[in-house]
Amino acid sequence: MFRAILPEGQIDCERYDHTENGIELYDENDEFIAFVPYANLHAVADQDLYTSSRGDEERSIM
To answer: CA-CA distances (angstroms) from residue 61 to 26, 37, 43, 49, 51?
Structure first.
């Protein structure tokens, strides 16, 4: 699972593909969720970055 980090918030997705102008996000059923232009994309992070090794506590990486 991945998280696309945008100025306005975040979008969870199962996978993403790079295109010439941005990334395409897809859900667990391989259905298209959104297109995010590179200019609006801060980062794509693996969901594991948000959970600690001590359990499922959410933590901030910002």
So the answer is: 23, 22, 11, 8, 10
Total residue count of the chain as it appears in this document: 62
pLDDT in tens, the chain (62 residues): 999 999 999 999 999 999 999 999 999 999 999 999 999 999 999 988 766 555 555 555 55
For strands 2-6 and 9-13, give the pairing: antiparallel
Inter-residue contact 58 to 47 (CB < 8 Å): no
Instruction: Round to whole Å and give the CA distance between 55 and 58.
Output: 9
